[in-house]
Amino acid sequence: MAKFLNSSGTTYHLEELIKNASDRLIIISPYLKLNERIKELLEDRNRLKIDIRIVYGKNDLHPEEINWLKNLTFIRTSFCKNLHAKCYLNENECIITSLNLYEFSQVNNNEMGVLIYRNDDAKLYADTYEEAQRIIRISDEVRMSLEKVTETESKPEHNVKAVNITSHSTVTSTSTTEATPNYSKLTTAKLAKELGFKTQELNDKLLAAGYLEAQDSELVLTDAGRAAGGTSKKGKFGEFCLWDAGMVV
To answer: What is the pTM assigned to this prediction?
Structure first.
């Protein structure tokens, strides 16, 4: 039967759930900032070619963590707008909890959760698994990478982000942005020109990836967009977005 977990119990059983995954692993957490222990466990599961899905709602990853995820072949990462659920599953058990997979939460917060064993509560496990699959289906799969990009010989060299975006959904919008870029930062319109897109096409891709969202007929930068290197600036005609010059879509 299901087992109640306090803060320490949730952390312990979460690590055990990851460590014992032999077929699949699903991690659903709005906030994502991995401590070293969780990274080690995920790296070990990746070596064993376990299918790992991570769904997040607000990205607080540092650049080195993004590159760390990029190098793990069997981890697929998805962005889900308005995500609030926290749930962790392998093929035999799952945890539904208040705990985000966030370093601060695991150390400082008072958390609780419920551990469900598939053999003891087959229906409850199945219902949880189906809902996790639904969340994965409505999420946009995002592949992020950071690489060193060398600027033209007429300018000093800078290390800037290159972010690859792959998404399975499409959103349309009519908003565009215009401004003068500052060094390695480009407006959406200038970045689109560099990449050979129309501004509308690039906006659609950024929306589909969860880096922008439409609010009152305007495009607004999301937390995921900031984590990917985007910044929001105020101009004469309102706010506009700037992106790293090396960003690849």
So the answer is: 0.58
Q: What is the pLDDT of residue 35?
A: 85
Give me the half-sphere count of Cα atoms (radius 13 Å) on the Cβ side of residue 228. 31
Location of each CATH 3.30.870.10 domain in the chain: 3-140
Helix or strand (DSSP H, E) at 191: helix 188-195
- How many Å apart are CA 192 and CA 188, to the nearest integer? 6
Calpha distance 88→81 (Å, rounded): 18
User: How far does CA 83 lie from the centroid of its chain?
Assistant: 11
Q: Give dist(CA 188, CA 197) in Å, integer.
A: 10
With a cut of 70, list the residues of the chain below it in pLDDT. 59-62, 64, 103-107, 143-184, 217, 235-238, 246-249
Predicted pLDDT of residue 207: 84
- Percent of the chain predicted with pLDDT > 70: 75
Integer CA distances (angstroms), 227 to 138, 142, 240, in order: 21, 12, 17
Q: Quote the CA–CA distance of 173 and 164 in Å, as a whole number.
A: 21
Q: Are strands 51-59 and 75-79 parallel, antiparallel or unpaired?
A: parallel
Q: pLDDT at position 211, please?
A: 84
CATH homologous superfamily, domain 3-140: Endonuclease Chain A (3.30.870.10)
Across-strand partners of 31?
Answer: 58
Write the single-letter amino acid at 7: S
